[in-house]
Design a protein that fits this description.
With about 425 residues, the chain is mostly helical. The protein has helices at about 25-65, 70-100, 105-115, 115-145, 155-170, 200, 205-255, 270-295, 295-300, 310-325, 330-335, 340-350, 395-400, 405-415, and strands at about 180-185, 190-195, 365-370, 375-380. It comes from Ooceraea biroi.
Length: about 425
């Protein structure tokens, strides 16, 4: 979240709740309106968004940690929810400072000056990096389904998630010198205020760093999101079209009212991959929609006055819209995943322990295949068939044939059929 960083000290040093010296009457009226706007926004609206966001992302982590969601993609989604929780928690101090004023003590002033922006932007950058890893992983799986995942895949994914958090803190650490603590004497009291470190923020090196971070956190990830996710969606559309043609041809040969015993119809993995594609696409759209207003701030208000009412309103609204991106993911999950809704209801009802040790909604003859990608299933022989009989001489060969991964077959050969 780079809101205000490129444009100087917006959301950083302009504490509208503190005034010093004599100001004209008009500026005093404008400042009072700015204070009312800040209190309404950061004292009422933002706390509601934070409460929804923290609850929603905690619920996502709890639900995705259950036995039903054990795929590789869900590890990335869990890490993404943790990064969003970090963003929400770091916004609490900003809300207190801008909505209710900064505490007049040096420890809090030191945190606001040197740590607040680092923590906020670190978690925000980590969420973007985790999304990039997720999109790249989805692209590799869809276009290279024969790639075998080893037993260390889950450890590697955890390493990628941890590396994303580390990279976020590394790339955000220079923000610690953006502000300084300014002290003033008011009689016997010492007032602590935030000031922009002009000697740093007005330098050419600082501008290069800010734009480099903007490219690394916004521009390049946006290109990756658009390019790779568009290819994934295109591939699924092609596979769906060919699947409909296949079913249309098979319906003519299948007896009337006979059950569909095709490999794809019995495999939940292909549908699950489709749901993941829809989920990631919705996340990317929300990312673009919520970050565009704040990105346009330097262009729309290149030469603004800190007390310009239009600038104040646009700045606050863009910050709220950008913050809402981290709070609406629970709504995206609820809208895109029936399984998530079902498991969340179980968690809220305290029934999450009832599903442990058993496969929920697992059709007979299917076992989950975690060796390749962790999100699809392989087919095993039906119960009660001769294939389960030890007398069957071709048992091993037939079982091996039936355990063929349906999703891999479709993704490897679907487009060329």
């Amino acid at each position: 979240m780079l809101t205000g960083v490129i444009d100087g000290a917006t959301l950083c040093c302009e504490d509208v709740n503190s005034t010093t010296g004599h100001v004209p009457v008009e500026e005093d009226v404008i400042r009072s309106r700015a204070i009312s706007l800040a209190w309404m926004s950061y004292g009422i609206i933002v706390p509601i968004i934070l409460a929804i966001g923290i609850f929603g992302n905690v619920a996502i982590v709890v639900v995705l940690s259950g036995p039903v969601f054990r795929g590789i993609a869900y590890l990335y989604l869990s890490g993404l929810a943790l990064a969003h929780i970090g963003v929400m928690l770091s916004w609490i101090t900003i809300t207190l400072r801008l909505g209710y004023g900064m505490s007049n003590n040096y420890p809090s002033a030191f945190y606001y000056a040197h740590l607040e922006l680092v923590v906020l932007n670190a978690f925000s950058a980590a969420s973007v990096f985790i999304m990039v890893c997720l999109i790249v992983d989805r692209y590799i799986f869809v276009f290279f389904p024969a790639r075998i995942r080893t037993g260390n895949t889950r450890k590697n994914v955890n390493s990628y998630i941890v590396s994303s958090f580390i990279a976020g803190f590394v790339i955000s650490s220079p923000l610690s010198v953006m502000r300084i603590v300014h002290t003033e004497q008011d009689g016997s009291n010492t007032l602590f205020m935030l000031r922009e470190n002009v000697s740093v923020t007005q330098s050419t090196i600082w501008r290069i760093y800010i734009w480099a971070m903007e490219i690394a956190v916004r521009i390049c990830p946006s290109i990756v999101f658009i390019a790779l996710n568009s290819l994934v969606i295109k591939r699924f559309l092609q596979l769906n079209a060919q699947s409909r043609q296949f079913h249309a041809a098979s319906d003519k040969l299948r007896a009337q009212n006979a059950p569909d015993t095709g490999l794809l119809s019995r495999n939940r993995g292909y549908k699950e991959e489709q749901h993941l594609a829809i989920l990631t696409t919705t996340m990317i759209l929300c990312f673009f929609v919520t970050t565009v207003p704040s990105s346009l701030t330097p262009l729309l208000y290149a030469n603004h006055h800190p007390l310009d009412p239009n600038y104040q309103i646009y700045r606050v609204c863009s910050a709220i819209v950008e913050l809402s991106n981290y709070a609406i993911y629970i709504l995206i999950y609820l809208a895109c995943s029936t399984q998530f809704r079902r498991q969340l209801l179980r968690v809220l009802q305290g029934k999450c322990n009832e599903t442990r040790g058993q496969n929920v909604d697992q059709p007979i003859g299917e076992i989950e295949d975690y060796s390749r990608h962790g999100t699809t299933v392989r087919l095993t022989p039906e119960h009660g068939t001769k294939l389960n009989s030890p007398e069957s001489p071709t048992k091993e060969a037939t079982v091996e044939e039936d355990t063929l991964d349906a999703t891999t077959v479709m993704l490897e050969h679907g487009v060329s059929v």
